[in-house]
Amino acid sequence: MFFSRWQPRSAARITHQKILSRLSVGLLLAPILYSCDTAASTDASTDVPVPSGSNTVTVLGVVVSEQQAKLEAAFAPFEEETGIDVIYEGTDAFTTLLPVRVDSGDAPDIAMFPQPGLMRSLAEEGALIPVTEVLSQEELATYYPDSWIDLSTVNDEIYGIWYRSALKSLVWYNPKEFEAGGYQTPETWDELIALSDEIVADGGNPWCLGLESGNASGWPGTDWVEDILLRTAGPEFYDQWVQHEVPFNAPEVQAAFDYFGEIAKTPNYLYGGQTGALSIPWGDSISGLFTAKRGTDTPECYMQKQGNFISSFFPVDVVACEDVDFFPTPIINPEYENALLVAGDIFAMLNDTPEARQLMAYLATPTPHEIWAERGGFLSANKQVDLSVYPDELSRKQAELLTTADVVQFDASDAMPGSVGTGTFWSGMMDFVAGATTEEVTDKIEFYWPEERVVSSDEAGGE
Amino acid sequence: MDSNNVSLIFKALLAIFLGSFGVIGVFYALNILVEKAFPERARIKVLPWIYVGPALLLLTVYLIIPTLRTVYLSLFGPSSNEFVGLKNYIFVLTAPDTLTTFRNNLLWLVLVTGISVFLGLIIAVLIDRVKYEQVAKSLIFLPMAISFVGASVIWRFIYAYRPADAEQIGVLNAIATGLGFEPIGWLVNPAINNFALIAIMIWLQTGFCMVLLSSAVKGVPADVLEAARVDGASEVQIFWRIIIPMIMPTILVVSTTVIVLVLKVFDIVFVMTGGNLGTDVIASRMIREMFNFRNYGRGSAIAVILLIAVIPVMVANIRRFRQQELNR
């Protein structure tokens, strides 16, 4: 059910997956390590594998199971070319495990962070080596847009190399149905509301919304609010909000909730109404674009806002660009026109070894990006990645958006402390759609914001 | 690396072998040791400890020490490194979400215990007079064999909601729309979602209550019942005046078992609603505080509150048990 890592997971699932991932790491890695080892022992005379240092580089990341094979494939050219053995370890408990390993002096050479929050706190502690030690800022700028470099900058130092990315500021629609209804894709929020009203007047439901996701229910609603806030209050305010320099119930945030309320609470906007939104599993709700209401030929809904990863939930017979297409979330404040809400994995270096430096340099080049992109389910913000490697037109368009965005901001709920980001923010979105007012919801989330500083206490709870 | 893996597999096999047969071996060996090493007198004193000892040791390591540590952790902050006194308890006892969980647990306690024991009793008495008793009993007992998570998955289909314009996939909403009503959001309507969850637990527990109560009902001596009938007591009078008082100890044991079970329930809530929309219970809140929010202090405080809530039930249970032993 969970195709991409950026969809939140339940705790039960995590503990379960932890076991699974341990197993799969053990089982999957066994043959891979075996083959690497035989290759290494032909040119190096060491029989005993050395954990770190001589001719190996250790990488810790969140990618497991079948995704791990794609990542290993991306490392392969590097291993062949340099003879350096990349020992990758995938874990679902990354945010717990990494601080513990750093504290106990057993840090991996390179870590693949699922979100920049933990990277930021480790960088502030001085546990990371700036990437500028390896690549100059100018070199980096040839690979990544400034907006992405900004997102990996802590206290004016650049720490990370972005790898797999997800794009969340997308509204999906069915071009055929739009044509049949004579609808135009909107560019501004007012046009979006006008379009929605028009669809309602024609007897349809403009929106599909599915918030159900086990005990992560509500997260698609957080993406809505975050995207709207980025478009109304701008990236600086957004940052302050994530860092809790402004309270969660600040007027700007409440306004963003109200914008979302226009979609979620206007009668006839949602297919199935608010009860439908609360009950329908998030992955199922996209099928409304392609399914006609019983006994009619109007589709269940015309639009859905969801990240690029929703494409794995399309029915098999859906043809990209013909049956389904997307437009970026409409502009609300023209000042923040080309802003995108994203998620992604970022590599950063913890041990300054020559091997790690070589790998970091390699990771910035388009090769590892293209290898995974070809295999599908991957977007890269790397400007030099050849767009033709993407297996379909839609991901090509998404990658283009990613590499040309003026402003990118990271998914806020991923970066907020757990009790908010995976707790009251999610459940608050459920309450909000179920009928709670903006004030009730935002006040409660603010109440639950932990008193301690965000990442330092929450993530680094090792000792 | 290669030989490493082989040795890992070998170690795993060895562990399974030792785990399975080692325990028997240890008891056997200790028994022999005691019989050889101690004189007759001392042997009688030592031998019980040999048998109880490993269990006591495990209980200490896995139950008593963790309990004490939980109490200790509940006085500390999220990552257990600064002392905060009773702050976690005050937060838990005043925060809106945890207050909802207390209300819900109370609701669960009253409804699940009440209804499943009542239903179990009625069924136990009625089933006694049915021809196909064994079949009927097994059918009612069957849900007991399903894990809570499994049952929750089944009930998700029963409660499934699809908008009115779509094909219903949930049994209840298919019936509702079939009768011309709008489909109902069983799990998301705050007025009914708690009851929808409680119904699952009742479905699971009624069989358990029935089986125990049924054997108690059968244990009521036939001559007592006959005497009552000869004296002209009606069946209802027999039920209230004779059967109920005679099986009271069993009813109490069954009730306390269900109460403790209900206090611990979290799987159903976790799977069905994730505790959203006012359905959270104490145990699922504890899990979320601990493992989702990584707040060990608050999670431990909730655990301690839960423990305190269970203690009176356990004490009552033990007292009753002792009294029964005395009466024997």
Element-by-element helix/strand order of chain B: HHHHHHHHHHHHH
Which residues of chain B form runs of ≥5 with pLDDT under 50?
A: none
Rounded to the nearest angstrom, the radius of gyration of chain A is: 22 Å
Largest interface: A-B, 53 and 42 residues
Mean pLDDT of chain A: 84
Averaged pLDDT of chain B = 89
Word description of this protein:
The complex is a heterodimer of chains A (463) and B (328). Chain A folds into two domains: 11-166 and 343-401, Periplasmic binding protein-like II (D-Maltodextrin-Binding Protein, domain 2, 3-Layer(aba) Sandwich); 170-340, D-Maltodextrin-Binding Protein, domain 2 (3-Layer(aba) Sandwich). Chain A has 19 helices and twelve strands. Chain A is α/β, with parallel strands linked by helices. Helix content of chain A is 48%, strand content 12%. Chain A is globular. With 328 residues, chain B is mainly alpha-helical. Helix content of chain B is 77%, strand content 0%. Chain B contains 13 helices and no strands. In chain B, helix 4 (96-127) packs antiparallel against helix 10 (235-264), helix 6 (148-159) crosses helix 8 and helix 10 (235-264) runs antiparallel to helix 13. Chain B is globular, with a radius of gyration of 26 Å. The interface between A and B is large, with 53 and 42 residues.
Please give a quick description of this structure.
Chain A has helices spanning 11-43, 65-82, 94-103, 116-125, 137-143, 146-151, 175-181, 189-201, 219-232, 234-242, 251-265, 273-279, 354-364, 366-375, 393-404, 412-415, 418-434, 438-448, 454-459, and strands at residues 56-61, 85-90, 110-113, 153-154, 157-158, 160-167, 170-173, 303-305, 325-328, 339-349, 379-380, 407-410.
Layout: helices, strands, pairs:
The complex is a heterodimer of chains A (463) and B (328).
Chain A: H1 11-43, E1 56-61, H2 65-82, E2 85-90, H3 94-103, E3 110-113, H4 116-125, H5 137-143, H6 146-151, E4 153-154, E5 157-158, E6 160-167, E7 170-173, H7 175-181, H8 189-201, H9 219-232, H10 234-242, H11 251-265, H12 273-279, E8 303-305, E9 325-328, E10 339-349, H13 354-364, H14 366-375, E11 379-380, H15 393-404, E12 407-410, H16 412-415, H17 418-434, H18 438-448, H19 454-459
Parallel strand pairs in A: 1-2, 1-3, 10-12
Antiparallel strand pairs in A: 3-10, 4-5, 6-10, 6-11, 7-8, 7-9
Chain B: H1 2-37, H2 40-73, H3 87-94, H4 96-127, H5 133-141, H6 148-159, H7 171-178, H8 193-219, H9 222-230, H10 235-264, H11 267-272, H12 282-292, H13 296-327
Helix pairs in contact in B: 1-2, 2-13, 3-13, 4-8, 4-10, 5-8, 6-8, 8-10, 10-13, 12-13
